[in-house]
Write a structure and sequence with these properties.
Blueprint (H helix, E strand, L loop, with lengths): L1 E5 L8 E5 L9 E9 L3 H7 L16 E9 L1 H7 L6 E5 L8 E5 L3 E3 L6 H4 L3 H14 L16 H12 L9
Antiparallel strand pairs: 1-2, 3-4, 3-6, 4-5, 5-7
Helix pairs in contact: 4-5
Length: 174
């Protein structure tokens, strides 16, 4: 398959096309035919040589993908409600700048109706981060107020939107 590799730390011109073997989905994973990849700060930092590849992760950059399920762990797919041919977006530890990428089923979401693959590829990092921190850990409830510092970042905008959708209230004017 075709991939984009980082050949040396540096500017964007260090990203070069290359060929690699197709990845294979293991237990609890999906194999996604990638239609679009997100670009995140860690991708840029990794390209610059300032963010090491996590142990056990692919050295191919790309932490977010959107595409079509090609195959996967049948039991995990059934439990999550995914089938071959479904449009998904996913958060991965690396490997997104490729024609195919393996993702843990628990880090995959159906592509929301009306969104393109490019739009869907921009969702997983921010939505998983906000959901994990604001709702799983912070347990935000309807009627509560959420303070978002840096509300114009991807994480900030997502936190504001999800909090509003969950019934959080705006603080009274000062």
């Amino acid at each position: 398959m075709k991939v984009i590799e980082i050949v040396a730390p540096g500017a964007p011109d260090v990203l070069k096309p290359a060929e690699r073997p197709d990845p294979v989905a293991g237990a609890g994973e999906l194999l996604i035919k990638v239609a679009a990849s997100g670009v995140n700060r860690p991708d840029v930092l990794q390209r610059k040589g300032l963010y090491p590849v996590p142990q056990g992760a692919s050295d191919i950059p790309g932490l977010e993908v959107a595409g079509i399920v090609e195959s996967g762990d049948p039991a995990a797919m059934q439990a999550a409600g995914f089938r071959v041919g479904d449009a998904v977006c996913a958060l991965v530890a690396g490997g997104g700048y490729a024609e195919r990428c393996v993702a843990p089923v628990g880090q995959c979401l159906p592509v929301p109706k009306g969104l393109s693959a490019v739009e869907a590829a921009s969702l997983p990092e921010t939505f998983f981060t906000v959901w994990s921190n604001v709702f799983d850990r912070g347990r935000l409830q309807p009627g509560e107020t959420l303070l978002v510092q840096g509300g114009t970042s991807g994480i900030g905008v997502t936190a504001i939107q999800l909090a509003k959708a969950a019934g959080a209230r705006r603080p009274p004017p000062a």
